[in-house]
Amino acid sequence: MTNRLRTQIEEEEAEKKLVVEEKPVKEFPDNFLTQFLTKGILNAEAATKALPFMLFVALLGMIYIANRHLAERNIRDIDKISKEVKELSWDYKNTKAELAFKSTLTEVAKRTDTLGIKESLQPPQKLMAGEVKNEH
Q1: Minimal CB count within 10 Å: which of 86, 87, 109, 130?
Q2: Which residues contact 62 (CB under 8 A, 6 or more apart)?
Q3: What one-character DSSP code corresponds to residue 133?
């Protein structure tokens, strides 16, 4: 009996030496989300099948965002150009008014006076065809 006991003890010690430490398997907490993702509609196989569609949806989302940025930039450019057009319109109207003022008879007379050109005091005369006028 002692031999048998001794052999059992030796076997148990040998088993203890041979026991390799096994890493415990990580278990996820048992909550709604993990149950839904493992046992529900979504699982690894379904997610793999849906991956091309999800990538397509992500691509559409990026195109939508890029389009939105492009549209906002165009709106900013349009606002900037319309402000510039208004400013140029005011410059045009101001220049047109100055030209109308400077082309009046009195302004032209003032400017030509410095050159020695005088305004005629005689009224203009109409010439008729076939008439010859003698000024003696």
Answers
A1: 130
A2: none
A3: -
Whether 43 contacts 37, CB under 8 Å: yes
CB 20 within 8 A of CB 14: no
Q: Specify whether the CB–CB gap between 109 and 99 falls below 8 A.
A: no
pLDDT tens for each residue of 22-79: 666 666 666 766 766 666 666 777 778 889 999 999 999 999 999 999 999 999 999 9
Phi/psi of residue 104, each to 5°? -70, 160
Three-class SS of residue 32? helix
34, 28 Cβ separation under 8 angstroms: yes
- pTM for the model stands at 0.47
pLDDT of 132? 63
Residue 39, CB half-sphere, CA atoms under 13 Å: how many? Answer: 7
Task: Work out the pLDDT band at 14, boundaries 50, 70, 90.
Answer: confident
Tokens of residue 102, six digits: 């400077």
